[in-house]
Amino acid sequence: MRQTLPCAPAMDKPHAPPDSARMEWRADGILLTVRRHGESAAIIELFTEAHGRHLGVVPGGASRKLAPLLQPGAQLDATWRARLSDHIGSYKVELVTSRAADAMGDRLSLAGLGAVCALLSFCLPEREAHPALYARTAALLDGLGAERWAEAYLGWELALLDEMGFGLSLDACAVTGTNEDLAFISPRTGRAVSKEGAGDWADRLLPFPRCLSGGPVTGAGDLLDGLKTTGHFLAHHLAPSLGDKPLPAARQRLVDLLVRQAGGSING
């Protein structure tokens, strides 16, 4: 009797995931950077509330139609799609607000816009949500050109340091424990130091302007002292944690402009 051999099972062939398995989300976001990709596309970094700093390709992003709209600081309505979650994916974007166009007539606003976008691109981990920082950033950029914008920017740098794990502790003296007569900040620990606690080390400590602990900015010198302090922790604590890359030059350009407007000097 002839025997029929069983057929070998058919091998599964690789196939693309069904449309239902494709990754997709839609959100408003702040455009941080744009760079050309190929002939006509662009790769953008978008900062969104739920998806953090998220890259994607904009087909036609370098075209005459889209390129003028894709300026750092712009608020975009974006839809991101990809076959798999770890792919760079592509964006379909619509302009909500063009902040760069609004800032063109004001050098301080334009410099501030550049500093905010550059610092976020520099320090934010990719695809890690920072909703509180996103909300604060959107409010800061929406207030570009306001009378006390530079003061708000200083508060934003403090919030950025805190969000990245390098927040300052300014409630009490690191040496004596007192919360009175606080005059300095330790450049190593970011903690406040009183005049008594500083002793002979005072000339090695950073100034402690009251505006860093919620007090009003009392003048240009106070603001610049605050930026000198936040600049130290950005450059000497945050940046080394990211591979010792230098801070974006846009931050120093903003500080230099504030110095010129104040007629003073500062080393950020």
Describe the structure.
Residues 23-98 form the DNA replication/recombination mediator RecO N-terminal domain. Involved in DNA repair and RecF pathway recombination. InterPro entries: ARFGAP/RecO, DNA_rep/recomb_RecO_N, NA-bd_OB-fold, RecO, RecO_C. Belongs to the RecO family. By secondary structure, the protein is an alpha+beta fold. It has a domain at 23-146: Beta Barrel (OB fold (Dihydrolipoamide Acetyltransferase, E2P)). Helix content is 33%, strand content 21%. The chain has helices spanning 99-103, 107-123, 131-142, 149-163, 195-198, 220-241, 249-262, and strands at residues 23-37, 41-48, 52-58, 75-82, 90-97, 182-185, 192-194, 206-207. Strands 3-2-1-4-5 form a five-stranded antiparallel beta sheet. Strand 2 (41-48) and strand 3 (52-58) form a beta hairpin. Helix 2 runs antiparallel to helix 7 and helix 6 runs antiparallel to helix 7. The longest helix is centred in the last third of the chain and has 22 residues, at 220-241. The radius of gyration is 25 Å and the shape is elongated. Mean pLDDT is 89; it is low at 1-21.
